[in-house]
Amino acid sequence: MDDHHAHIVQRLSQRIAMRATADPQHSYTARLLQGPKEAVLRKVGEEALEVVLAAQSTDRAALIGELADLWYHTMVAAVLDRPRRGFCRTGKALHRGGQLKLLMTGHRP
């Protein structure tokens, strides 16, 4: 993963970790993390379907928006059991196995 992508992942991970303890009435992320795990996983599935549907159209902006939503909800799902650790540690563990690069690029390291 290049530095630019790593920086984006790190910033989003920090934001998710910061909001993990926020008031769920004022933070969507807090509601997700403090709610039932099944709700987050269902949201990941919904967003994945929306990516597929957007990819079938010619609206690139819609596809990018849906990919961003999927990325965010996937990162939230990745830290459900340990929100204060953030995604970066999870990402490092995935990277050691080559999985993060595979997810990011479609190619094994």
Largest sheet: none
H-E order: HHHHHH
Gyration radius from CA atoms, angstroms: 14 Å
- Through-space gap between termini: 10 Å
Number of domains: 1
> What is the fold named in CATH at topology level?
Helix Hairpins
The helix content, as a percent range, equals over 70%
Q: Uncertain runs with pLDDT below 50, 5 residues or more?
A: 90-109
The DSSP helix count reads 6
Number of E strands: 0
- Under the CATH scheme, which architecture would be assigned? Orthogonal Bundle
Structural class: mainly alpha
Which overall shape is indicated by the principal axes computed on the Cα atoms? Answer: globular
Classified by CATH, the class is: Mainly Alpha
Would you tell me the overall average pLDDT? 78
Considering the protein shown, what is the CATH homologous superfamily? MazG-like
Could you tell me the strand content as a percent range? under 5%
Account of the protein in words:
There is one protein chain. The protein has 109 residues and is mostly helical. It has a single domain, classed as Helix Hairpins. Helices cover 73% and strands 0% of the residues. It is built from six helices and no strands. Helix 3 runs antiparallel to helix 4. The longest helix has 19 residues. The radius of gyration is 14 Å and the shape is globular. The C terminus is likely disordered.
List the keywords.
109 residues, Helix Hairpins, 6 helices, globular
Describe how the helices and strands are arranged.
Blueprint lengths: L2 H17 L8 H7 L2 H19 L4 H19 L7 H11 L2 H7 L4
Helix pairs in contact: 3-4
